[in-house]
Amino acid sequence: MTRAGGLVAVLGLVGALFVGWKLLNPEEAGAGPVATPPTSAPAAEPRLENPEATRVASGVGVEGPRPLPAYPRELQDPTRFAGLGRIEAHLVTKSGAALPTRWTLVLEPAPFRIGAEHARARRIEVENSTMLLASDIQLGSYTVRAEAGEWGCRPHDIELRKPDLIDHVFPLELYERGTLTGRVVDARGLPVEGLAVFALSRTGSDVRESRTVADGSFAFERLPDGDWRVRVATRENPLASLEDVTFLAPSLHLRDFMVPPMGSLEVRVIDENGVGLVGALIEASGLASGALSVTTGPDGLARIGPGVKGDLSLQATDAQYGHAEARVEFDPQAPRSEPVVLKLRL
User: Fold this and answer.
1) What is the pLDDT of residues 114-134, one digit of tens each?
2) How many CB atoms lie within 10 A of CB 184?
3) DSSP alpha helices (H): ranges in 3-91?
4) Which among 190, 185, 290 has a CA at the least distance from the CA of 238?
């Protein structure tokens, strides 16, 4: 093959390769990607309109201050709580028990309700009737309940206001108050007997006291419904406590209260001749269970406790035989084999 023929063959091959490349890449060199045809946006779902609704501007997305909320006009009327209203209350019970004929209707401002600031707290005594009609109640929002001895009451929230709610008739349901129970054990799991337990209402207006028995249990009977604090041993510095208890009749049993190891101490009071004195007063402090006062029994013996480990101060007094004091290191886990003796002197 001549040189010219070889050049022609090479040029033909290059041309064939170029034609093949163009067939595989139809877009021209330097052009961007082929644009795809636009697709139509999905159609918006139709909105349901209430023909009775009135459209108002919400202020959302609008520059400047937002408009004030549009409250009903009657809420802004300063006279809607001006004047007096009437209530008619009837005592009822589901148990079928005889209803008391002496009771008190209690009206208190209803918290967090419109009109509570206009209400006037009142107590109305009722005798020889299970129904009360009162027509001189200041308009406002009230919580209404009955107090009737050992009965509890389901309260009612009512609103006395103009123009149409100045007259209310409603039942006050009475129920028998319930029992709050629990148990006190020490760190070893042993029941603690004779320990004071207090139930304090959240408002501080009611304080109840109970005392544990042999199995460590205690009970508060005929307890009103409400929020209570339960404290073990003392009210101020309890050995254990539960600060938030919501009690509802008929009953509630609390979890066990755990206290440190506890025990008691035997004490004997004698005169100068060594004779045991009956009726002598012993006062003890320092047991971390509150000050205790006991009176000696036969042979001048008395038991102090329960208490926790620590220094114990004892004072014994008798009007005829005099006074004695002692300080004892008390350890409930190392009980004494003999009583502590206090010898009185004038």
Assistant:
1) 899 999 999 999 999 999 999
2) 25
3) 3-24
4) 290
Residue with tokens 């709610």: 165
Return phi, psi of residue 311, to 5°. -80, 135
Dump the DSSP string for 169-232.
Answer: EEEEEEEE-EEEEEEEEETTS-B--S-EEEEEETTSS-EEEEE--TTSEEEEEEEPSEEEEEEE
Decide: residue 262, CB within 10 A, 0-12 exposed, 13-18 middle, 19+ buried.
Answer: buried
Q: Looking at residue 307, what is its pLDDT?
A: 83
Segment among 59-63, 232-236, 256-260 with least mean pLDDT: 59-63
Extract the tokens encoding 221. 């009977």
Mind listing the pLDDT tens digit for each residue in 157-178? 999 998 888 899 989 988 888 8
13 pLDDT band, cuts 50/70/90, is low
Using alpha carbons only, give the angle 87, 92, 250 rounded to the nearest 5 degrees.
120
All residues at 6 or more sequence positions from 62 whose CB lies less than 8 Å from its CB, including other chains: none
Nearest alpha-carbon partner for 277 in 313, 242, 320: 320
- Point out which residues pair with 158 in neighbouring strands: 142
Structure token digits, residue 146 = 């009955």
The tokens 């101060």 sit on which residue?
313
- List, in order of start, the domains of the chain with CATH numbers: 78-175 (2.60.40.10), 178-259 (2.60.40.10), 263-343 (2.60.40.1120)
Please provide the DSSP assignment of 278-314 as one string.
TT-EEEEE-SSS--EEEE--GGGEEEEEEE-SEEEEE
DSSP conformation class of 65: P
| Residue 8 backbone dihedrals phi, psi, to 5 degrees | -65, -40
User: Under a CB-based contact definition with an 8 Å cutoff, are residues 228 and 180 in contact?
Assistant: yes
